[in-house]
Design a protein that fits this description.
The protein has 303 residues and is α+β, with helices and mostly antiparallel strands. The longest helix has 13 residues. The model has no long low-confidence stretch (mean pLDDT 96). The chain is globular. Strands 19-10-11-13-9-14-17-16-15-20 form a 10-stranded mixed beta sheet. Strands 2-3-4-1-5-8-7-6 form an 8-stranded mixed beta sheet, with helices on one face.
Length: 303
């Protein structure tokens, strides 16, 4: 099966009211259902971020299967049941456990939300193209406007084992494989295989690094660079903890801004990322390319 996108990230936290305040300031729309906190963006996904009450932890990663039939095929191969999803949007799910114990919820058949669409961009006037004529630009003070979930990053104990597990089940393609100076491969930015349809440079990044096994961050696409900077100002004034940014990555090229939720989980705003198709293949990249930025703040561990 070839998954077509990342679907959601799932957490537990002891205070849903505090998490609700954070995700709202981060630029998502929170709502409650059966004592679970959900948050959606401006796109059609019924939810992108969910939090159940409990001890603080990362609970699960959601991936989007192309069809319910493909989900049944996965079920047969893995010996895991297809069950109905009792959450907003409904649908069906197969839940698997990866080699490091991360839960992976593979979903199909969700009902898309109606009536949401990204705000209309006023337009940018750069030196080569003037798209805003006879109109002034005034950017209101507000949170960023999250549109969709873009990717998740997980620390793993054995890169090659996890790489094989995710590729064999979900059809991921490596965009950039991280190789150390001594020639050891320790991670990969992996994209969905959509054939000739452009897709994000990565929907999943797995890395075997000094931080060990665990959730690293989840990244949410916002409207544009203006939206990222006003969101940065909004979160700063609201008193939340910045983690890394603003800058532009080398691998994936995104303009980024990372923040920490009340329990230390890192969430990223990003815009202007690379899009690839299947025939673009894979390449090797260095630790320098992973850690460095094209401009802006260097990674905290690289400072």
């Amino acid at each position: 099966m070839r998954v077509v996108d990342i679907a959601h990230v799932r957490f537990a936290a002891p205070d849903l009211n505090l998490m609700e305040r954070f995700v709202s300031d981060f630029g998502m729309q929170p709502f409650r259902d059966a004592d679970v906190l959900y948050a959606h963006g401006l796109g059609p996904a019924p939810y992108l971020h969910m939090t159940e009450k409990g001890n603080s932890r990362f609970v699960a990663l959601g991936l989007l299967a192309p069809t319910v039939d493909s989900l049944h095929g996965l079920s047969e191969r893995e010996g895991a049941a297809v069950t109905t999803v009792d959450r907003p949007g409904g649908g069906f799910v197969v839940t698997l456990t990866d080699p490091d114990g991360f839960l992976v919820e593979v979903i199909a058949g969700q009902v898309a939300a109606d009536g949401r669409s990204p705000l209309r961009e006023v337009g940018w006037n750069d030196a080569l193209e003037k798209r805003r004529v006879r109109a002034v630009k005034r950017v209101p003070k507000s949170p960023s406007h999250v549109v969709r979930l873009g990717h998740c990053v997980l620390g793993v104990s054995d890169f090659r084992r996890s790489e094989a597990w995710y590729k064999e089940r979900f059809g991921f393609i490596t965009s950039d494989e991280i190789v150390t100076p001594d020639g050891k491969s320790i991670g990969a930015f992996m994209r969905c295989d959509r054939g000739n349809e452009p897709t994000d440079h990565h929907s999943l990044f797995i890395v075997q690094g000094p931080r060990g096994v665990g959730f690293n961050h989840a990244a949410f696409e916002i409207l544009d660079a203006d939206d990222l900077f006003v969101g940065h100002e909004w979160l700063s004034q609201a008193g939340w903890e910045p983690h890394w940014g603003v800058g532009r990555h080398v691998l994936g090229s995104q303009i980024f801004d990372y923040w920490r939720d009340p329990w230390g989980h890192a969430l990223e705003h990003w815009t202007d990322g690379d899009l690839l198709v299947a025939q673009d293949g894979s390449r090797q990249a260095t630790l320098t390319e992973l850690k460095e930025v094209q401009w802006g703040h260097r990674a905290p561990h690289a400072a």
